[in-house]
Structure formats: structure tokens, C-alpha cells
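Lab manual, section 2.4: Encoding a predicted structure.

Procedure: take the sequence of the chain (137 residues), apply the prediction step described in section 2.3, and record the output as C-alpha cells. A sample record is shown.
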Amino acid sequence: MTSKDCFPLAWLLAACLATAPGLAGARNCSKGKPCGNGCIAQNKQCRIDNHQHSTGSPTVRWTHDPGVLRRTRLKLPRVYRVVSESATAWQAPSSSVKTARYRQGQSVFVYETDGDWARVSNMSPAEWLERKHLQLK
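Recorded output:
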């Protein structure tokens, strides 16, 4: 077989590889393997679909592997101002354990509400204020 005979075969092989599904848009990763718009290590599992939606960004494939952290929608805390002259924070709604004291004019973040109570601490111990002492800033 001469080089002249190999040319059509090479052209056919190149055309097949270019139109093969999944290979046309694949990245050329020198180390690792393609994943989404980048490359990852060979021993890692890609959790991003290879197809692009109309937005042009890859979608995340949700897995049931407990070792994988899931993306969640974070609900940002709202800023409130203490309007009472003095407000006592409690460990839990209707608790008898005091955790802190807030003065009038202090700003606090409200992370969640439970009836007439608002959790103003994201740390331990939790701090809950009665909502009557707060006003949205």
C-alpha cells in the first residue's frame, strides 16, 4: 500500500472522528480527562453533563452519593434593627436560658423565624429574640 492509497483512508478516519458524538466538542486535556468546560484528574468522576443548554452553561447532574456536597440555594439573612431600649436573647424560643443582651439601635442578622421569634445568631449557642423588639432596616 502506497502513501497515495492511504490518503483517502486517513481522510475517512478524520471525518468519522470529527462527527463522532461526544468527541467533537471534547477538550484536549494533556493530563486527566474532560469535564464540562475544563479538565479533571483521571481518578475523579465528572458530575457535569457534556451537553450545553440554551444558556451555554453546563448543567449539574445530581447524584445520590452521600460523599458529594450538594449545591443549595442559600437564603441570605435579612438585616434588622433593635427598636426596644433593651432586648434579651434566649437560647431557644420560650426558653429560660439567657444568652445575650442587645441595645436599641444595634443591627442584627435574622437567619430564621419561628412564630414571634427570630434567630439572630448563626453560631452556637443560638440566640433568639422576640420579633417585637426588631424592625426591618
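Check your result against the sample. The two ends are 83 Å apart (CA to CA).
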